[in-house]
Every structure is written in C-alpha cells, then in structure tokens.
Amino acid sequence: MRFRLVYQGELKANQRDPVQNQPDRLAEHKQTIRKVFHQQLKYLWETNSFLSSACVFRRDYGLEVAEIDTPNSKGSYDDTMVSLVDAVAHNHIENGYRFVPLVRKDWRIMCSLNILFLRHDPPGSVVHAGDLDNRVKTLIDALRKPGNTRELRGNESPAEGEEPFFCLLEDDQLVTSLAVESDRYLIPPDGKRDEDRRQVHVVVTADVRPYDVTMFNLSFA
Predict the structure, then answer these.
(1) What is the four-CA torsion angle of 132, 138, 139, 142, rounded to 10 degrees?
(2) Domain of residue 216, residue span
(3) Using H for helix, E for strand and C for coil, what is the string for 7-48?
(4) Which residues of the chain have pLDDT under 70?
(5) Are 96 and 160 in contact, with CB atoms under 8 Å apart?
(6) 184 within 8 A of 123, measured Cβ to Cβ
(7) Which end of the chain, N or C, is less packed with Cβ atoms under 10 Å?
(8) What is the largest CA-CA distance in the chain?
(9) What is the model's pTM?
(10) What pLDDT is recorded for position 77?
(11) How confident is the model over 144-183, as pLDDT tens digits?
C-alpha cells in the first residue's frame, strides 16, 4: 500500500525530546500538524476498498460482545464481527481519544518514508542547515500516535471530526527506512519573521508493507 500525505505550513525544529515529566514545548505544534494528517488518513480509510469494508472477529481484538455495537457489526452472538476501524479505535482508547494507527505491530507491517521537503533557504545550504534533521523529527512525531498526555497539551479532548483520530504510526520504531530530499520552497514568505521563514511544503510518500505475510496483512502487499 503506497500513498502520499501533504503538509503545508510552519514547521518548527525539535531540539530534544522531553525527559521524565518535562512538558513537550512543541506539543501543540505537533498536534496541529497531526490534525492535518488525520484528515487525509481518515479519507484514506473511507475510500480504500480494504480499509473501508474489512470486518474482524471481536474475539481477535479482545472485545466483549457488549463492549462495542456499531451499524457495521454483524454475525451471531458467539461469532460476531465488527468493522476494522471500530476494533482498532476501541483498542486504542487513550488520553481521552480513540486513535486509529494504520502501521501497527500486531498487524506485522512496516513503513518506509520518502520525504520531499521544500523550505525557504538559499541554494547550497541544504547540507549545512543544522535544523533540517530536527524539523524532520518534528514531522515524524506528528505522524505517530501521541504516547502520553504531555503530547496532547492544549488538545486534551478531540475536536469535532476527530472521533476517532487517525494517525499513520502506532510507534515511530515501525519506520524501517527514511529518505529526505530537500529543495527550495519558491513561494515567497509573507514577511521576514522567523515563523514566516519556517513555512514549508512537505510531501510524505508512505510505503506500507508486511514484514511477515499473513492472510490478513496480504491486503497491504
């Protein structure tokens, strides 16, 4: 399964990960970007023939029959099925959200990312621009499910249209390869402020593949 995600806007550099109980200074910024990807991944789940129609047995996801009852549920009492999106969301109820990560360990699938990174910098500065890696790190964080409440600071509850909340990665350790191509962003900045020059246009090509093929994840091959 191969698709592209697009982000256009400000992208700040992630200087270092917070430790212990330190707040994530970029939590709101990352969630803003995560919301952009959520809308695109939601559309992917709605339009992809497998993701939109797949149903799974409740017992395979540890769901009691009474735990979840949706219009997509079907089957007998002892052998009921539920839509894939509802099963995944019910197993990821965290921090006030129901998350739907696409790349998951239990599905035995991995993801490679190819990122086209357009930014406001003069020619020849790509290699020496020290914050490029840190800005890519911010982007990767926004592609994964938040790991704790600190990463949802300022967004403690889902907004309208975010139930459930779609994200690409369950964990960024499921990214097996990463390639970044950087070039100049030729849309002039609105001003000379730092936030204007931090405007970027990013195209993320996600290549999702099984690392251990099963009858279920064959649909991702």
Answers:
(1) 180
(2) 2-17+24-220
(3) EEEECCCCCCCCCCCCCCCCHHHHHHHHHHHHHHHHHHHHHC
(4) 15-22, 62-79, 122-131, 191-196
(5) no
(6) yes
(7) C
(8) 65
(9) 0.86
(10) 45
(11) 999 888 888 888 889 999 999 999 999 999 999 999 998 8
